[in-house]
Amino acid sequence: MSFFGNQFANVVEWEEFRDDMIFWKWSNREIKKGSKLIIRPGQDAIFIHNGKVEGIFEEEGEYQIASEIIPFLSTLKGFKFGFNSGMRVEVLFVNTKEFTVKWGTKNPVLIPTPQLPGGMPIRANGTFNFKVNDYVTLIDKVAGVKESYLVEDVKIRIISVLDQLLMKWISREGKDMFNLQANAFDIAKGIREDLDMQVMDIGMTITGFQVMSFNYPPEIQDKITKVASYEMVGNLQKYQQIAMTDGMASGDVKGGGAAADMAGMMMGMNIANEMMKNMNANQKPSSDKQSEPNPAPSASSSEGKKPNFCPNCGTKNEGANFCPNCGEKLG
Predict the structure, then answer these.
(1) If we measure between CA atoms, which residue out of 94, 92, 90, 91 comes closest to residue 21?
(2) Is 213 helix (H, G, I), strand (E, B) or coil?
(3) Cβ neighbours of 206 (radius 10 Å)
């Protein structure tokens, strides 16, 4: 009796297709008379016999197994698809698309830093991309013992080593621990290369790894914000003035109380002093020039000049050295 004799036809296809499924195995079944193979877009079909890959079909479409698949397989590796009833075959359907997965640290990663003896607690999040690239390794390490494999399975594998890789590459590339975002590209590149080594042994490759953001504890983030404010203002006194003004504008500092009145008075005095300093600095060159005293007469110009009247008796002087009335010296 031939292999296809007296049997009902069946369809070899991915019956349980899901977008998050990496592969699914049509296994341990007999191919019956009139059976056909259906390959949908984004799928490859791999025929396996006795644990060995006998043929890979990548073109989407519908194929008659008896007339289109079996003759092709019979030419490979001396494989003879017998016509004995009871012969079974496995077909592994693989999702060929690139998967995108979101990731995030569940617990803070303690990054060693001199400023904090216990380490800097940092959280991070982003995405990574992967796809199947080695069918032989995939079958040998995973598909040989599993009927299906999900994106979540790969995610669990990645997350299990991600904390250690974040610690490694943040410590190596994060020279400024308070501005890790500036080094996010280099950190992500290093992690991608290490993750690729982690999934290579199951027939997959990491095609991309991105860090969207680094997050600090609230108290540390507040200090980072304050430091940035100091740098922006450049002066502690001005920062205090701005902080007080913001507080009054937001209602955190309200009038009516002694503390608020004192704060307002101090702010006014400080602002007034700053304004006076600026005005004096701007007006000093012009005022100095205008108030510059006339030069004192030289000794040569005043020497020999006689008063018009005697300072002693008031007699008019006609240029004499002595008063003609009282004899007072005039020159």
Answers:
(1) 94
(2) strand
(3) 21
